Amino acid sequence: xxxxxxxDHTKFLSKVNWLLLLMLLVMTAAYFTWSDNLTITRIxxxxxxxxxxxxxYKVFRMLIDRGAIASFKWENPNSPxxxxxxxxxxxxSILWSTxxxxxxxxxxxxxxxxxxxxYFMRCFMVLDTYFPGxxxxxxxxxxxxxxxxxxxxxxxxxxxxxxxFRLTHGGEEARLGGFIxxxxxxxxxxxxxxxxxxxxxxxxxxxxxxxxxxLVLLYAMIMTGSRSxxxxxxxxxxxxxxxxxxxxxxxxxxxxxxxxxPVMVQMLWVKAGDGGMDEIMTMTGRLPFWTAxxxxxxxxxxxxxxxxxxxxxxxxxxxxHTYAGHMTHNxxxxxxxxxxIVGFTIVLFQxxxxxxxxxxxxxxxxxxxxLGILIPVMINSVTEFGILVKLIMVFFFTNYxxxxxQ
Length: 406
Description:
By secondary structure, the chain is mainly alpha-helical.
């Protein structure tokens, strides 16, 4: 009788694990542009995201119906308080946005991501509290999600290169991503996946298959041509080398870090060619653009910005010596232009309390996982402001909430 109960319990947790992977996979995939037809893309995004948001709530209810309790309380309300301030200010800023429809749409997308991530992490809160000994891990789900999505791109680059490659530098350089996803964002997802899967190595979870998955992600990251992501992977390697007490694993990661250095040299200097250093030093023209934003646009709306996800009164901002851009290619600069000094201060305190929560948690595995995944996200945040950054940053927020669960 006990064996039958144990088998049923194992099957239930296995089902939950697969459902959580499916929810995370579809939610992340729904941020991609899978069709060059705008109508089809919007249908995929709306149906996909709303379906998994409803779906993750159903998974949460499955756990509650199994005997868990849905109640919880905040031990330290600072992080959710500041995130609420951020969303509240964003909603109010629609009043002075010059494109209210766009700002409202972006706000609802952020709010929907928060709802999904909130219930996704509440599933882990319930699992940790009422299902002791379960083997479902967030880093495993995140790593597998990145692997499965990038596997599509790796296969696609051979089957249909015109779709899965994006030509840059006047058609001289082909970068993995195509119209489906910004190559730098895709590179960041590779970095997040690699960092997540390394924790599977720590717990000796299907090591051979895990190494294969890491190699696929590493290859995909190189094909994206993302310099920031490649540098991020080096930092990830050294972060894990510093944490690991396993000599063989340390040697493996040292080998990987050394092997990627020639790739960095190729991408930063050799591949850049004539004028490459100027491109690198200006961060592909971003530094002049940021300088122009701070000198010309920011003084016009310093306190509360131009409205949620807006960087200027018009659709794009362009200075005399810079390109025209509708986003800042920098997460922190984006917040400053959207919501001004007030919004930037709120987000700054939000990040301080979130990282403080990571560092203070007594669960070493969670602490290292979140700090490890934070590395590629923060690096990418300096040079990009994209949809995947927003999604994963919401996950960081909701991960912090899991530390406050009592």
